[in-house]
């Protein structure tokens, strides 16, 4: 699972999190996600940024992403109330569990993005023209030094969050096809207003030139970006705006960089043969499951197949198809079928689950259906889904799949190697 790929030492992995979710979510990454970059580039282990400096294991340091933000900003903006409370609780030796789990954490999180970029660049090498800055706090400046002279220069910076799963195998195969000397900003595209940006939780990637441009552009208008961060909702949006001002546009990388989980994604022809680089909203057990699946798959493949990517197809066949075969109708279950919603006056399909299932069978492009009181949803993609929330449990929400069509789809959809990658 950790191939000795020539590109591996040139990648820095960065994980952004919050101190209140650190221990529930981070340990699994130490056992999975971090193993390859730590093994292949031991002089520069993955960077972890949070809202509180901590040491969680020998050689595994959590950095305060907000350390370089001025005291003026911290003391004048209400978003930092949680930050001050966390620092006080730490000084008092108190437990941080459960602190700031609501909107406070979200409001504070957006402030981490730009300082994290500057500190990442500073730590990546000692000889970059942008590697030192008076805007960094003294505590940051005295932190661990940049890479040693013998450590290869970092060409790629891969940013994830604590609920992201990263396929290291596919990441290496993908980035080896791209030019790291270009200003590249890769991610799962989303929109707020007129700004297109890479969704942070899905993971995003910057080439070194793009990161340097970002930091240079940020420094040129420091106060303006602080004001815009205060006014806007999301740090990943601000990040894209800084890059865009510097002339760097997002290179759309969906569906490879993914905002769903393996069980909630709608599988279809458009993503079936694509390579999986990341998943989002993953619980610790799901991260471990994805890691174990990829490890087993790669070990099982013959030596000559080692360079082949892991596809969405492979994930479907392991994480979805066996469970559909086991149970093709589920009560208190939401498969997410909503491509067509039948709920109008006199609509027969909304009467009950049987009528909803019949409507799906009668529509040739329908793979799955979901009935809840008052409406029937039909799906043209295939998803396993999840149990309904507490508010709907026991209220008769039913999901089902037309297994003949599912099995036929799996049988006829073949993949060529040229289908795997989104290369811009």
TrEMBL record:
It is found in: Membrane. Pfam families: Fringe. GO terms for cellular component: membrane. It comes from Aulographum hederae CBS 113979. Keywords: Glycosyltransferase, Membrane, Nucleotide-binding, Signal-anchor, Transferase, Transmembrane, Transmembrane helix. Pathway: Protein modification; protein glycosylation. It is an enzyme of class 2 (transferase). Residues 128-148 have a biased composition (Low complexity). PANTHER family: APPLE DOMAIN-CONTAINING PROTEIN-RELATED, BETA1,3-GALACTOSYLTRANSFERASE. Its EC number is 2.4.1.122. It comes from the Eukaryota. Residues 143-222 form the Fringe-like glycosyltransferase domain. It is a single-pass type II membrane protein. Residues 124-148 are annotated as: Disordered. GO terms for molecular function: glycoprotein-N-acetylgalactosamine 3-beta-galactosyltransferase activity; nucleotide binding. Gene3D superfamilies: 3.90.550.50. Belongs to the glycosyltransferase 31 family. Beta3-Gal-T subfamily. This is N-acetylgalactosaminide beta-1,3-galactosyltransferase.
């Amino acid at each position: 699972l950790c191939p000795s790929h020539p590109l591996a030492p040139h990648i820095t992995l960065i994980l952004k999190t919050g101190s209140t979710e650190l221990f529930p979510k981070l340990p699994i990454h130490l056992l999975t996600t971090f193993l390859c970059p730590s093994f292949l580039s031991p002089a520069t282990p993955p960077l972890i940024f949070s809202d509180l400096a901590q040491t969680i294991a020998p050689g595994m340091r959590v950095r305060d992403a907000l350390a370089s933000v001025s005291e003026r900003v911290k003391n004048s903006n209400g978003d930092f109330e949680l930050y001050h409370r966390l620092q006080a609780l730490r000084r008092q030796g108190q437990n941080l569990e459960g602190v700031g789990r609501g909107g406070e954490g979200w409001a504070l999180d957006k402030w981490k993005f730009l300082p994290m970029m500057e500190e990442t660049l500073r730590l990546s090498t000692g000889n970059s023209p942008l590697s030192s800055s008076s805007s960094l706090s003294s505590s940051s400046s005295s932190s661990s030094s940049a890479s040693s002279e013998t450590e290869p220069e970092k060409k790629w910076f891969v940013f994830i969050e604590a609920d992201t799963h990263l396929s290291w195998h596919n990441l290496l195969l993908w980035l080896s096809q791209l030019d790291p000397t270009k200003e590249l900003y890769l991610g799962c595209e989303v929109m707020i207003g007129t700004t297109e940006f890479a969704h942070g939780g899905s993971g995003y990637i910057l080439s070194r030139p793009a990161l340097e441009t970002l930091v240079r552009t940020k420094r040129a208008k420091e106060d303006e970006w602080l004001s815009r961060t205060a006014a806007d909702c999301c740090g990943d949006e601000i990040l894209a705006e800084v890059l865009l001002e510097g002339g760097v546009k997002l290179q759309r990388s969906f569906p490879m960089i993914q905002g769903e989980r393996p069980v909630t994604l709608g599988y279809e022809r458009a993503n079936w043969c694509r390579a999986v680089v990341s998943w989002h909203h993953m619980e610790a057990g799901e991260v471990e499951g994805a890691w174990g699946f990829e490890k087993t798959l790669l070990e099982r493949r013959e030596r000559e197949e080692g360079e082949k990517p892991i596809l969405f197809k492979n994930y479907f066949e392991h994480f979805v198809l066996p469970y559909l075969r086991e149970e093709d109708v589920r009560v208190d279950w939401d498969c997410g079928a909503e491509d067509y919603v039948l709920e109008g006056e006199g609509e027969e399909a909304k009467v009950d689950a049987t009528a909803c299932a019949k409507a799906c069978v009668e529509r040739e492009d329908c793979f799955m259906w979901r009935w809840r009181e008052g409406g029937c949803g039909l799906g043209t993609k295939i998803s396993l889904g999840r149990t309904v929330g507490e508010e709907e449990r026991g209220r008769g929400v039913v999901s089902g799949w037309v297994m003949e069509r599912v099995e036929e789809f799996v049988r006829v959809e073949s993949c060529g190697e040229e289908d795997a990658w989104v290369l811009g």
